[in-house]
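Per-record layout

source: Corallincola holothuriorum
name: UPF0178 protein DU002_08385
length: 151
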Amino acid sequence: MQIWVDADACPKVIKEILYRAAERVELPLILVSNQYLPTPPSRFIRSVQVESGFDVADNYIVAQLDEGDLVITADIPLAAEVIEAKAHAINPRGERYTVNNIRQRLNMRDFMDQIRSSGVHTGGPPPMNQADRQQFANALDSLLRQIMPKQ
C-alpha cells in the first residue's frame, strides 16, 4: 500500500501531517506535482515531478495506482477514478470519497462549473483553519487503521 498526493494544490500543513504519518506507519508517500517539491529526507517520502499540463499529475497517479492505495486530492474527477480503481481517497479537509458519495460530488462539481461559466462568481472554499487540519489528521489516522494490513 502507498499514499499518493495530488500535491500541486495540497496545502503545506497537510503535507506536513502526511510526512509524519508516513514515517509513523512506515508507508511510502509519493507527492506528484508539475513543479519541484522539496521533501524531508526519508526512506518513505519522495516526490515525482511530471510535465506541466491539464491532468498530467492526475493521469500519472491513476496509472501508478494499485488497488487499496490511498490518494489525497481535492480533485473530484481524480477521486472518482481512484474509487473506480478500488483505492481510497480523501480530500485535504478530511472528507472521504466513497462509492456512495462520489456521483453526488461529481454532479455538484459540474453544477458549480456550469454556474461559474455563466458568469456567476461563486468564490472558493474558505481558508483552512485548525479544525480543518485536525479533521484531516483524524480522518487520515482512522482510514489508515482501517485499511492497513494487520501486522
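summary: The CA atoms of residues 16 and 113 lie 31 Å apart. The beta strands are 3-6, 29-33, 45-49, 70-72, 88-90, 96-97.
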